[in-house]
Amino acid sequence: MFKVKELLLSPDSFENPIFRMHLHCFSWYGYVASTEQAHPWFSLIRCTIFTASIWISCALMLTRVFLSGSYENLSDGATSWATAVQFIAVSIATLNAYVQRGRVIQMLRFAHADLVAIRMEADDLELSLLDATQRYVRTITMLLWVPSVVAGFMAWLDCIYRTIFLPQTVFNAAAVHRGEAQPILLFKLFPFADLCDNFVIGYLGPWYSLGLGITTIPLWHTFITCLMKYITLKLQILTKRVIEMNIKRIKPDLMVQDLTTAELNHWHLQLCKGFVVEQVKIRRFVHELQQLLRVPVMADFIIFSVLMCFLFFALTVGKDDLAFAFYACEWYNFGLPVQKTLLFMMKHTQRPMKMRALLVDMNLKTFLDIVRGAYSYFNLLRSTHSY
Asked: What is the pLDDT of residue 234?
């Protein structure tokens, strides 16, 4: 069990430039709480209820799918199965997020403290990188959330209109069960009335499940996107600083032209030491992210594979840029100890930085393999159908 203090974040964490929108949504969901809340334990209870309700919705969907036996047409069967599979993936992701909430809180605390430090010591170019990351996160969040919310509101409005003006098309579970009528869109997605034809489960249940679906799915996926873009930002800033090799970052009042060779080597080695520390922090954060994602991504990989594969591919490219940055930093002007250290660091950065969803590497090649496999199965099914 979690202690309440383990779920608390400082109030300024909720204004983080990268995670602001998601932390406010997590606070409403009960996933995190602020130290200023009067009753933070209420968030733990609320998150537990929401997580349990998602699994109840998933159980109802699966029960309906397996008890239905057969469908009158392929479209109805595909809709029911697609919704059930989606809810299975969401249920696994939410349960995993609930179990690993302590890990997520620690990652958020670390990222927030690090971003605060970056803002304090960043130059104009680094601040522009941070602003670009913030715009990217905001854009991708809107691109994933808006279609989901619009589709959900369309289903809700259709149900409201029919409930007021055409109630016979809404409260017709018996006729639908006999095959004499068709359910409305919302009840096609969540046919809970087939299991229990009452107002709470059969009518309000689909409303609640749809609300969970259109909020939790894009919320979790875009939050993972934020974490990965934070790693990308760290790599970009580190790469820039390596190329510059500016020892004045350590001591701004340092007079470089008055330093001896030994003193220059000392300060350059101190700078390299800081680079190593930052790179180790990035690798540890990537490891923590892998521990958080490996189980749900294995279940959710097909549904959300495109964006994740490309983002992890971007991390690989960023790692290669960092290795080249050590070569491009005018190493020939430094002393021999610094040159040896840079060579060692360059070899260290060339170690593969990869993430796995249990048995699957998350990269561009995996995505292309999925596309090729899907196209091959499509051709096989089409050729079978033609005969």
From this structure: 93
Q: Residue 297 and residue 198: Cα distance in Å, rounded?
A: 36
User: Which are the contacts of 129, defined by CB distance < 8 A and separation ≥ 6?
Assistant: 233, 236, 237, 240
User: Could you tell me the two tokens for 288?
Assistant: 């923590």
Question: Using alpha carbons only, what angle is made at residue 166 by residues 163 and 168, rounded to the nearest 5 degrees?
Answer: 90
The per-residue pLDDT for range 319-357, each reduced to its tens digit, is 667 778 888 888 888 888 888 888 888 888 777 666 666
- Model confidence, pTM: 0.76
DSSP run (H or E) holding 356? strand 356-357
Please say whether the beta carbons of 312 and 355 come within 8 A: yes
317: its two tokens: 């490219």
Strand stretches in 128-181, DSSP E = none
Determine if residue 179 is left, alpha or beta; phi over 0 gives left, psi from -120 to 50 gives alpha, anything else beta: left
Cα-based angle 113, 118, 120 (whole degrees, multiple of 5): 100
What lies within 8 Å, CB to CB, of 140 at 6+ separation is 222, 225, 307
Mean pLDDT in residue range 117-125:
90
pLDDT tens-digit map of 184-222: 878 877 777 777 777 888 888 888 888 887 888 788 889
Q: List the one residue out of 247, 255, 253 whose CA is nearest residue 274.
A: 247
* pLDDT confidence tier of residue 377, bands split at 50, 70 and 90: low
The answer to whether 190 and 206 have CB atoms below 8 angstroms apart is: yes
User: Which residues, 6 or more positions from 236, have their beta carbon under 8 angstroms from its beta carbon?
Assistant: 129, 318
How many Cα neighbours within 13 Å face the side chain of 224? 26
